[in-house]
Specification:
Layout lengths: L4 E2 L13 E6 L7 H12 L5 E6 L5 H6 L5 E6 L13 E2 L1 H6 L4 E4 L5 E4 L2 H11 L8 E4 L3 H13 L4 E5 L2 H14 L3 E5 L11 E4 L19 E4 L8 H8 L3 E3 L1 H17 L1 E2 L3 H15 L1
Parallel strand pairs: 2-3, 2-4, 5-7, 8-9, 8-11, 9-10, 11-12, 12-13
Antiparallel strand pairs: 1-14, 4-6, 6-7
Helix pairs in contact: 1-8, 1-9, 4-5, 4-8, 5-6, 8-9
């Protein structure tokens, strides 16, 4: 069992009845979560565990949750469910509450549904893995749910100002509010000036595929660190140019692995989760897609 040990408050092992988990979202066909979680189950010797994938939108989510039986240990959530799930839960952890975004639902032995957010510590862990522990300033490209999680992670990493580049005044106001709530200095700027963001020591791109392609030509000669949350297609045009210029690049697979590691540990009660095997499985799956 790779030296894994049982954690307090564990959801159960392969011999217990609660041994099902899945990722929900809409669309969901692209998700690598089943690959990562199943690789972890194999390394941990959890032969009775299964991890599925279900296409569920906001309207269908209440009914889906209502039909789950006692064999369920947890769920991973992607867009557009990270905020819409909150009213359906019995409790939300402090990390998830800080940005009103849940990417993990845990089912307790007494039947409660508890929400958590492993994206935030996952971002911090992915940065630390690449040697980024503290920066004096940072920039975020985009202002969606992932951007708010990135901002919460920067509250633990950045000692100075964070500039967020957005397309609308409403999103700008929302990100400033998150900054006040998280206790981090946030300044917003128009997306038309996003090329300036690339001079920050740490840039976190949270935008959809293709949104940053035009920025690749603006990468400076000596860039800092880029964290691009996408993993497919990879590398993005921005990430490829950044790497070619000698800058450090953290990718979406890094985030996906680190947040999934925490989910596996919470859902199974076994730690540490096998991050290396999970990453290898993810890389193999992505290579097959290409």
């Amino acid at each position: 069992m790779s030296g894994a040990t049982r954690a307090d408050g564990a959801a159960g092992t392969g011999g217990d009845r609660r041994c099902r988990a899945a990722v929900l979202g809409y669309p969901i066909g692209h998700s690598l979560s089943p690959v990562l979680h199943r690789a972890a189950y194999g390394e941990l010797g959890l032969q009775g565990w299964s991890y599925g994938r279900f296409e569920v939108d906001e309207a269908a989510l209440p009914g889906f949750l209502a039909e789950l039986g006692p064999e369920w240990a947890g769920l991973s959530l992607t867009m557009p469910l990270k905020r819409s799930v909150i009213p359906l839960l019995d409790g939300v952890g402090d990390t998830a509450a800080s940005v009103e975004a849940v990417n993990t639902v845990l089912f307790t032995p007494d039947g409660r549904r508890v929400g958590d957010n492993t994206d935030i510590p996952g971002i911090v862990a992915a940065l630390r893995e690449r040697g980024v522990r503290q920066v004096e300033s940072a920039a975020i490209l985009g202002a969606g749910a992932t951007a708010s999680s990135a901002l919460a992670a920067l509250a633990r990493v950045c000692t100075g100002e964070v500039v967020v580049y957005v397309r609308s005044a409403a999103r700008a106001a929302e990100m400033r509010q998150w900054g006040e709530r998280l206790g981090i200095e946030v300044r917003t700027a128009d997306w038309a000036d996003a090329g300036r963001a690339l001079h920050a020591p740490l840039v976190i791109a949270t935008t959809p595929a293709g949104a940053t392609d035009l920025l690749a030509a603006s990468v400076p000669d000596r860039p800092g660190t880029l964290f691009d949350v996408l993993y497919d297609p990879w590398p993005t045009g921005l990430a490829a140019r950044w790497s070619a210029r000698g800058g450090a690049v953290v990718g979406g697979l890094d985030l996906l692995v680190h947040q999934a590691v925490l989910q596996v540990e919470q859902m199974t009660g076994l730690a540490p989760a096998p991050a290396g095997a999970m990453r290898a499985a993810g890389e193999k799956s992505l290579a097959a897609r290409r």
